[in-house]
Each structure stands twice: as structure tokens, then as C-alpha cells.
Amino acid sequence: MRARDLLRAIMREPLKYYVHTQEGSHRKMKSAAGYPDLLFSFHDAQTLAPGLVRKVLVKDVGLTPEQAIGLLR
């Protein structure tokens, strides 16, 4: 999965993340839905391994594995 696709996914409902501040490719993300703050530090065209995508969604954001899979569909 490309980083820009993951960024689009976390900016949609139900997570509603938005870019709070940005310096280069480092984006500090906040959630309007109350999820924890997130540092998204990937270049848009970078390919992310499935384990890294899972880590961001499950450990950093706090979703269950089932919710993470549903978000990406």
C-alpha cells in the first residue's frame, strides 16, 4: 500500500484525522473523532509493508485488527 492511500484512509470517517502541522514529509495528525495524535512521517509515494500499515492502525491509532481491515476496504 502506498503511504498516500493510508493517509486518505485515516482522513476519512470514522477516524477523521487532519494535518495539524507539517514539516516536509512529517505530518502531525489530530483526529476530530477523538483518536490519539499521530505522527505520519512517510513520503506519499513510499510503499508501506502490510505489517507497518497494521502497526499504524492497530497500535498507534487503537483500532482492532478487524476494524483496520474494514477501514482499508
Name the poorly predicted regions.
none
Helix content: 25-40%
Spatial shape: globular
Structural class: alpha+beta
Order of strands, main sheet, comes to 1-2-3
How many strand units?
A: 3
- What's the helix count? 3
Order of helices and strands: HEEEHH
Count structural domains. Answer: 1
Strand content: 15-25%
Radius of gyration (CA) equals: 11 Å
Main sheet, how many strands, which sense, barrel? Answer: 3 strands, antiparallel
Chain-averaged pLDDT: 97
The CA-CA distance between the termini, in Å, is 12 Å
How would you describe this protein?
By secondary structure, the chain is α+β, with helices and mostly antiparallel strands. The chain has one domain. It is built from 3 helices and 3 strands; from the N terminus they run αβββαα. A hairpin with a 6-residue loop joins strand 2 and strand 3. The longest helix has 12 residues. It is globular and about 30 Å long. The two termini are 12 Å apart.
From the structure above, extract its key features.
single chain, 73 residues, alpha+beta, three-stranded antiparallel sheet, globular
Outline the fold blueprint.
Layout: H1 3-11, E1 17-23, E2 26-31, E3 38-40, H2 50-61, H3 65-72
Antiparallel strand pairs: 1-2, 2-3
What's this entry about, in short?
The chain is of the alpha+beta class and 73 residues long. It has helices at 3-11, 50-61, 65-72; strands at residues 17-23, 26-31, 38-40.
